[in-house]
Design brief:
By secondary structure, this protein is α+β, with helices and mostly antiparallel strands. Helix content is 53%, strand content 15%. It folds into 4 domains: 114 residues, no CATH class; 104 residues, 2-Layer Sandwich (Beta-Lactamase), CATH 3.30.450.20; 71 residues; 176 residues, 2-Layer Sandwich (Heat Shock Protein 90), CATH 3.30.565.10. It has a 6-stranded antiparallel beta sheet. A hairpin with a 7-residue loop joins strand 4 and strand 5. The longest helix has 55 residues. It starts with a helix and ends in a 28-residue tail after the last strand.
Length: 545
């Protein structure tokens, strides 16, 4: 449309120039060109043509028709020897590029007929040889047909290439989004570094591993700006220099913080034609998390092996206990009966360990239809504590402080009893013999979560003990199986609860406190791996079970 306006302007200037030279008979041509300029300006400024398509469009036909009529009129009114035939190339190109092949050929046929009609009219008005004019019109028409066909085919090819390009771009954008999503969600850190040491891209995991107090790690940034990142800079230089992948364990020494140990692997993304810049892709993995996964896998393997061993031990152990009981019936010597009692006690101890191991191996996250009963927390805790007090004759040591009101929790009564008794036994083992040395309390947190606590005035646990407090087979006593707290944790996870440890003050005395945070009875427990949740910040990393 801009080309039409330009041609119309040139025609107006040309006709005005011819008129100024004294050709007064050119007034009709000036009027036609002026009207054509107004029409092209109107279409250019206000018309909103549809996109090119394969169907007939009346709007495009009217635009092309205006051009054909105007150029035909100029060709018919020519009185100054100017040949306007080349102007027909504009409507021909419009029809060929912006319409179907039929419109292009139809336009070429129309122009050819108009040229032949003009030659015929000229032959009537004048005498002489007119064959050359008819020949020129025929050749021009043939050329227009060729232009229409070639231009239309080139336009169709261009449209196909454009569609393929758009499809490829859409697929490339989708692939880029997928790649970015994968990189963003990777547990390992990923850095993309150029040869100048500038980090072009850094995913959230890498920013977390590299974070310092003075830098945010948001790309782009220069890797050499932080002194603690020097090992990474050296590995990057080695990758570019040797053009080979590198792998090493490095330690990032943060001031005032524990050094972070990383497993670093680099790969070189080099251009095949050496025309583009090469990039170093650096993968960062926290060695602590790697070691934790290895420990978890080892513990799982140990658990399976222990369950198999415990299952094999159960039958011969039952036979030993039964044989010992039969032997004790026939013995009357006190010394011999003392030996059978020792055998019975140790066999019972082994049987308890076997039962605990088998309970762990059978522990699974409950399904939604087995989410336990809705228990009144205060009533249940009070009843279990009273039973435990009568059995252990420790009424003078325990103090009850229930404050959960009518709060209900989702928990199996027998499982809650087992958790409480285990915590109370531990508290009794390490508490002093003073009054209120053990306190059992219930309360509601600021977020409305019910919890109960077992507090004792024992000595603080060592840091190494706190770190492995809820791990299986870990105990500070030689005669303990180390499965009590681990089973408590497993039972709590079944019902979406959280068990933890902290030092707490009670009645002006600092002691050890184990607490359980419950989900309310009206909250559904999702099937699958247990989700750890907390109502308040806790001081020890061991609380993430």
């Amino acid at each position: 449309m801009t080309a039409r306006v330009t041609i119309a302007s040139v025609l107006v200037v040309l006709q005005a120039f011819i008129y100024a030279l004294g050709n007064v008979s050119n007034s009709w041509s000036i009027a036609v060109c002026a009207v054509y300029l107004g029409a092209t300006l109107g279409v250019r400024l206000w018309a909103r043509p549809k996109p090119p398509g394969s169907t007939f469009d009346a709007q495009w036909a009217s635009t092309i028709g205006v051009d054909v009529v105007v150029f035909s009129a100029l060709n018919f009114l020519q009185s100054n020897g100017v040949n306007y035939t080349p102007l027909f190339a504009l409507p021909m190109l419009l029809a060929s590029l912006l319409g179907p092949i039929l419109l292009a050929l139809g336009t070429a046929a129309s122009v050819t007929l108009l040229l032949l009609a003009d030659a015929w009219w000229f032959s009537i008005q004048s005498t002489g040889e007119h064959a050359s004019r008819f020949l020129q019109s025929g050749l021009s028409g043939s050329g227009f047909f060729a232009v229409a066909l070639l231009a239309n085919q080139l336009a169709l090819r261009l449209v196909r290439e454009e569609q393929l390009s758009k499809t490829g771009q859409a697929m490339a954008r989708m692939q880029t989004q997928v790649n970015e999503l994968v990189v963003e969600t990777l547990v390992d850190g990923v850095l993309v570094i150029d040869a100048n040491g500038i980090v072009r891209s850094a995913n959230p995991a890498s920013r977390r591993l590299l974070a310092t107090e003075d830098s945010t790690g948001m790309a782009p940034f220069v890797l050499a700006t932080e002194a603690i990142w020097r090992p990474l800079v050296e590995m990057m230089h080695m990758t570019f220099m040797l053009r080979a992948p590198q792998e090493a364990d490095v330690s990032l020494e943060h001031l005032g913080r524990i050094a972070r140990r990383l497993r670093v692997r680099t790969r070189l993304a080099a251009s095949r034609d050496n025309t583009n810049e090469s990039l170093c892709v650096m993968f960062l993995e926290d060695l602590r998390e790697m070691e934790a996964r290895i420990r978890t896998e080892k513990m799982a393997a140990m658990g399976r092996m222990s369950a198999a061993v415990a299952h094999e031990i159960r039958n011969p152990l039952a036979a030993i206990s039964q044989a010992n009981a039969l032997l004790e019936e026939d013995l009357h010597d006190p010394a011999q009966r003392q030996l059978t009692r020792m055998v019975s006690q140790n066999a019972q101890r082994l049987a308890n360990i076997v039962d605990e191991i088998l309970n762990i191996s059978c522990a699974q996250v409950i399904s939604p239809e087995q989410h336990g009963n809705a228990l009144m927390l205060d009533d249940t805790v009070t009843r279990i504590a009273a039973d435990w007090t009568r059995q252990t004759a420790s009424a003078h040591l325990i103090h009850m402080a229930t404050g959960a009101g009518q709060a209900t929790v989702s928990f199996d009564p027998e499982h809650l009893r087992r958790v409480m008794i285990n915590l109370l036994d531990n508290a009794l083992r390490y508490a002093s013999q003073t009054a209120a040395a053990i306190e059992v309390s219930t309360e509601l947190s600021v977020h409305g979560q019910a919890q109960f606590c077992v507090w004792s005035d024992g000595q603080p646990l060592e840091k190494t003990v706190q770190t492995h407090l809820f791990e299986p087979f870990f105990s500070s006593e030689s005669r303990s199986s180390g499965l009590g707290l681990y089973i408590c944790r497993e039972l709590c996870e079944r019902y979406g609860a959280l068990i933890g440890y902290q030092r707490a003050m009670r009645h002006g005395v600092e002691g050890n406190e184990f607490f359980v945070l419950f989900k309310s009875a009206d909250q559904p427990i999702q099937a699958g791996p247990a989700t750890h949740w907390m109502a308040r910040p806790l001081p020890f990393d061991t609380l993430s079970m």
